[in-house]
Amino acid sequence: MSESKHESELSFETLLDNLTRDDEEQAREDDGEKTQTIPSLLPVLPVRDVVIFNYMILPLFIGREKSVQAVNAALREGRHILICTQRDETVEEPSEADLYQTGTVAQIMRMLKMPDGRIKLLIQGVTRARVLEFERTSPYFEARIEPLTEKEAPDDAVTEALLRAVREQSEKVLSLRGIASADVVSVLQGVDDPGRLADLIAANIRMKPVDAQRILEEDDPVKRLELVNAHLQREVEVATVQARIQSSAREGMEKAQKDYFLREQLKAIRHELGETEGEDDDLDELRQSLKRAGLPKDVQKEADKQLRRLAGMHADSSEANVVRAYLDWLAELPWRKTSRDMLDIARAKEILDEDHYGLDKIKDRILEFLSVRKLNPQSKGPILCFAGPPGVGKTSLGRSIARAMGRKFQRLSLGGMRDEAEIRGHRRTYIGAMPGRIIQALKQAGTRNPVIVLDEVDKLGSDFRGDPSSALLEVLDPEQNNTFSDHYLNVPFDLSKVMFLCTANHLDTIPAALRDRMEIISLPGYTLQEKTAIARRHLLPKKIAENGLKPEDIQMDDAAIEQVIRGYTREAGLRNLERELGAICRKLARKRAEGQEGVFTVDAAAVGKLLGAPRYVEDEREKTLIPGMALGLAWTAAGGEVLTVEVNAVKGKGTLLLTGQLGDVMKESAQAALSYIRSRAETLGVPADFHDTLDLHVHVPDGATPKDGPSAGVTLTTALISALTGRPVRADLCMTGEITLRGRVLPVGGIKEKILAGVARDLKHVIIPAQNTKDLEDVPKDLLQRITVHPVRHYDEILELAFEPATEKTEEK
Fold first, then answer.
1. Residue 669 falls in the annotated catalytic set
2. Which terminus of the chain is more exposed, N or C, with fewer CB under 10 A?
3. For residue 217, what are the domain limits?
4. Does 754 qualify as catalytic in the annotation?
5. pLDDT tens-digit readout, 439-468
C-alpha cells in the first residue's frame, strides 16, 4: 500500500473562503480549542510529503498497517493523534530516527473505510508538539509528547509592518493568479495574530517539506511570520514570471489565430477569384509526387519539414518559390527507379562489333566487365577511363556500352570546368541555386543506374572557386559515392549504381589521387587499313544519308578512300576523314540537285578533282641514302611517321649543332649518341680525333614541327656513324629505340604505329628494342608479313643490319 498522503492540496483561497462562512462559528471553534485537553501519550502517524499546521483541515489516505493501528488507537482514546513528517519520503517502513521530532497534534473529525482496505481521514490541526520519547514502535508508534506553547508577540510597529507586508504579498499572489476576492481580503485583514496568520498562509503555499518543517519548529510567532514572508516574496516572483509566460503564450496564440483568420479570408477571396483550387491542387500534387518518388526515410523527413514550411508561406513569396523548387527536385529525382540490365554477353559483343571496328582489347575488357556484373550484380566495378588521341571513339564507346546494357546514357563535358559547384551544386541560400551536373544528369536520365561519361576529365581546371577534380574524388570512389551529398539537396544520394566512364587525351594532367581511382584503357590511333574499313562501314554511309543521297548513288573504291586518308588527313582519329568524306558527298549532292543522273563513281583520280590538290604528300622512299642519312620512326598524335635524320661533318673544332625544332630529350639523345661513338671510335672505324677536327650538324627535316623524345637515339647514332665513316645506311630499313652511353638499346612506345608507318613507306626492315617484342601482338599479322622485324638489345647488333656493305669507293672516301 502507498504511504498515507493528503488527497489534494487545498487551494489558498478555498480555505480562506471556508473561514468566512461563519465568524461566530469560527470563534466558538477557537474557544473549544483552548479548552481541549491534550493527552501526554499519543499515537504517532508518519506522513510522507506534507507538514500539518494549526487550524489546517485536510483529508489523508492511510494505507500502511502501522498507520491504520495508530488511527484505531486514536479513535479509541479521544480522537487525538500526533502527525509527524518523514525525513525521507522514499522510506517505506520508517523508524523513529526517520521522523522529525516536532509535529502537530490533530483531531480526527471523520473516518471512512475505502473498498480497497485503505482509510480516509478528515483531520484538523490543534497544536504543535515535540516528541520527548517513543514509548512503543509496534504494532504502531506511540510517543510521549510536550505541547509547544506560543510566545506572546510584541505589539509594536515592527510586528504591524510585518503583518501588513504579509497581507500585501498574499494579495499579490492571489491577484497574479486571478483568484482575488473581497471576502478573502477581508479575512486576511481580520487576522491580527502573527502566529495564526503565519500558520494559515504556510499551510496553503507551495513549499518543500523541509522548509515547511522549519516554519513549524519555530516557536517565535514573529520569526515564523518572517519565514513565511520570505517564501511569499519568492512566490510573488514565480507568479509574476508565470503570468508573463502565460501572457506571451496568449499573445502568440492570438497572433496565430489572427493569421489563421486572415489566411482563411485570403482563401475566400482567392476562391471568389478562382485561384484557390489551383494553389491547393499544386500543394496536393507536390505531396503526391513526393510520395510516389519513394524517398528514403531521412529524405522523407526533410521533405515533410519543407512541405510544412511551404504550407505556411504566402504563395507569391520568394522563399516559397525556393522551397517549391527544392521539393520539385526531390520529387523528380530517381531515388528508387532503375532500368533493368540486359547482360547478354553475346548480344553485347554484337553491338560493340557493330558500332566499332577493331579495338579488340578494349572490347574484351568491356565484355569482361559486363560478365562480372552479370555473375555478381552487387559488385562495385572499376571506373574505366578511355585514354587516347582525339577522334578515336572514346565517347561513342560509352554510348555503345549503355546500348549493350540497356541503360540510359548521359554525357558530361568537363573541359574547362573550374567551379566545384558544377559537381556538388550550390547551396540554397544563393540566388538561382541549383544542383550539380551529376544530379542534373540523373534527373535527365530518369533512372539511378545510367551510364554517365565524364568527357575530357584531363582538362579540368581550378581557381578561387574550388577544384572540381577534388569533388570528383567522392563521385568516382565506389566506397564513398553511396552517400554522395550535393550542396543543393543537402541529403545523401546513392551513386553506387551509376556506371561512370571517363575519357582523356593526356594522363599527365589528371591528379594522381583521381587517376588512382580509375582503370586506364589506352586507345591507340587507327591504322590505314582500319581507317579504310571504318570509312567503308560507318562514315561513308552516314555522310551519304546526311547529304540526301542514296547508297546506290555513289560507288567509291578503297583506293579512293586511301587517297583521302593519305593526302587530306594527318590524324590518329577519324574526324578529319569524316569531314573530307562529307565534302565529297556535298559536291556530288550538288550535281544531283543540278539534274545530273546516274551513279557517281569516285576513284583515286576523282578525289583530286573533288577535293583539290592533296594537302599532305608522302616522301617517296629513296632507293639509296647518301652517307649521313638514316630513317627513324616517330609516334605523333597523327599516328606513326618515318623520320629522316641528316648529319653533315665539316672541318671545325668539334662543335655539335642540332636543328629542326628538337626538344630537350632529343638533344640529350644526340649527346649520348656522340659520347658512345667517341668511346667506341676505334671499333666503329671512326677517326679518333674527330671531336677536335670536325663540326657535326644534326638536322631533322620538317623543321616547323616540334620533335622530342628518346626514341630517335639509335637513329641519331647511326646517322652520326654514317657521316663520320662515309658508309651509307640501307634505304629499305628504319629503326627506333633509346640509346645509352654504353650502347644499350632501351624500349620505347608506339611500336604498332611506328611499324605501320614503315609498312606504308614500303620499307622492308625495321629495328626495334628487344623489350618491345611483346608489343608486336597488337600489329595485324598481315602487316608483319610485309616487313621484317629485327629486335636488338645492343647497338653492336645494329652495325651489321643498318649499313650497306663496304665498297672500294667508300673506303677511299
1. no
2. C
3. 157-240
4. yes
5. 999 999 999 889 999 998 888 877 777 788
